[in-house]
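<goal> How does this chain fold?
<sample>
Here is the protein in question

***
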Amino acid sequence: STQSTGGTMLSACRVFVRRAHVLKGEFGKPIAINVGDYAEMERSFSSEDVESFAKLSGDHNPIHLSDDAAAKFKFGRRIVHGIVTGSLFGTIFGTQVPGSIYVNQTFSFRAPVFLDEKVRARVEVINVREAKRLVVCKTTCHKLDGTLVVEGEACVLVPNLIQTPQ
């Protein structure tokens, strides 16, 4: 088990910054980012969260919204929209590297997340293209028992990225 070296409260979630180097910046201020830097956060999603997303997105799939209907599906109960779980990566970028701009993100959904089930999302830097100010990260989200629920890769533009000494 790893220990948190820092963190801040964000509404219903907790952000943990663990590091070889801190993946934490301030909007508009220069930031050095290195391969291996990472940040994590934990969050669960309530029925109200799922209903709000359904209203916003128009995705009213009964597996997300109806206890009776979901009971008849493979998982036996309501699940959180996969993209809602995947949105945690954007939360990490937006809070830990303010001003960063998503270029792309891939997702593979591996297991369901149930209502009120806590998950931990992680972004880890795997490549830094300083000349183009691009940072590529491995993105993963696990249940607290270790079950992988979402994995992928993200690329973000970091306008205030500075070169680090070699």
Observations:
- The two ends are 31 Å apart (CA to CA).
- Confidence is low (pLDDT under 50) at residues 1-20.
